[in-house]
Design a protein that fits this description.
The protein is mainly beta and 153 residues long. Helices cover 14% and strands 44% of the residues. The chain is built from one helix and eight strands; from the N terminus they run αββββββββ. β7 and β8 form a beta hairpin. The longest helix has 22 residues. The two termini are 38 Å apart. The relative contact order is 0.16.
């Protein structure tokens, strides 16, 4: 083989390996990643939330809103209180303080931008990390509701 052909073959193989590695790089035992949340009342997707980890603590920010074209594409959190009042929902941190606790994540809080309320929260990975059950509650977990989020990456 001539050098140019060998270089092209090597580049193609290396590129394919890098792409394949990216597909499988996400740790299915971690909630870190991009998630599509599904409204537990309507069954429709609402947003893409990016969960990141820093020093063992997870936070989640709204990366993209999935809204009908006739809806406001840059809504504000009019029902939020304090510093979040009237701030854009896009880019807003809605999950804070979540920490791994065995097979779950606990100890955090989640903001519902639709009603401006902050709830205690827990999260549990399902289906080998493809789904994330996110529960918001007041007082005890039994008094709350759960959304199932779908891993996007």
């Amino acid at each position: 083989m001539n050098k140019l052909l060998m270089r092209l073959v090597f580049t193609a193989v290396a590129g394919s390996a890098m792409l394949a590695g990216g597909v499988f790089a996400q740790d299915p035992s971690s909630a870190v990643g991009l998630w599509k949340n599904i409204d537990d009342h309507t069954g429709k997707p609402k947003a893409l939330i990016r969960i990141t980890e820093s020093n063992g603590v997870l936070i989640g920010k709204i990366e993209k809103l999935l809204r009908d074209p006739d809806q406001d594409q840059n809504p504000k959190c009019v029902k939020c209180e304090g510093e979040l009042k009237d701030q854009p929902i896009l880019g807003m941190t809605i999950i804070t303080g979540m920490q791994k606790d065995g097979s779950e994540y606990n100890g955090g809080k989640i903001l519902d931008p639709d009603n401006g309320k902050v709830y205690k929260s827990k999260m549990t990975l399902q289906d080998n990390g493809a789904k994330l059950d996110v529960r918001g509650y007041i007082g005890v977990p039994m008094l709350g509701r759960t959304q199932t989020w779908l891993r996007q990456e």
